[in-house]
Design a protein that fits this description.
- Two copies of one chain form a homodimer.
- The first copy, chain A, has two helices and three strands.
- Chain A is α+β, with helices and mostly antiparallel strands.
- The first copy, chain A, has helices at about 15-30, 50-65; strands spanning about 1-10, 35-45, 75-80.
- Chain A has one domain (about 1-80): Mth169, Chain: A.
- In chain A, about 25% of the residues are buried.
- Chain A has a three-stranded antiparallel sheet.
- The interface between A and B is medium-sized, with 34 and 34 residues.
- Strand 2 of chain A pairs antiparallel with strand 2 of chain B.
Chain lengths: ~80, ~80
């Protein structure tokens, strides 16, 4: 069994109204040192698999087919084997 | 300037309908080896600061005051100095 952490973020240049709203809220709470906020998704999966390379291949497929919109988003991930 | 990556996830036991929907969608795409999906948030900040400890303190405050709902969510973060 493997645990996979997937980090999805908006590509540079893509508008992020949620991030701007959070930045404004932090500013009004007096955190004026915050220069930029970008909002993304964090997906944790548990997946059966034989080896890390096989899981890597599956995760890339799942991201490309379902989890990530490649027009506006980019992703990275970490895979950890559960003993 | 520091870059902070904040990972927010639902606590164990908190219902995650979005995660279940994704799991079902992956299942119907034939990724039947996926056992669990948990959906969370990934926030990237850029923040001015003097040292890492000061930034850490600020990030904890921002999480507790605004970004995280401590009843149902937990968080972790990484801080990296931008040169």
């Amino acid at each position: 069994m493997f645990k996979v952490k997937i980090y999805i973020s908006l590509k540079k240049g893509v508008a992020d109204p949620e991030g701007i709203t959070i930045k404004d809220a932090l500013y009004s709470l007096n955190y004026k040192e915050v220069e930029e906020v970008r909002m993304g998704k964090y997906i944790q999966l548990k997946i059966e698999g034989v080896d890390k390379d096989g899981v890597k291949e599956k995760v890339n497929q799942m991201c490309q087919k379902l989890l990530v919109n490649p027009l506006i988003e980019e992703y990275s991930y970490q895979i950890e084997e559960l003993k």
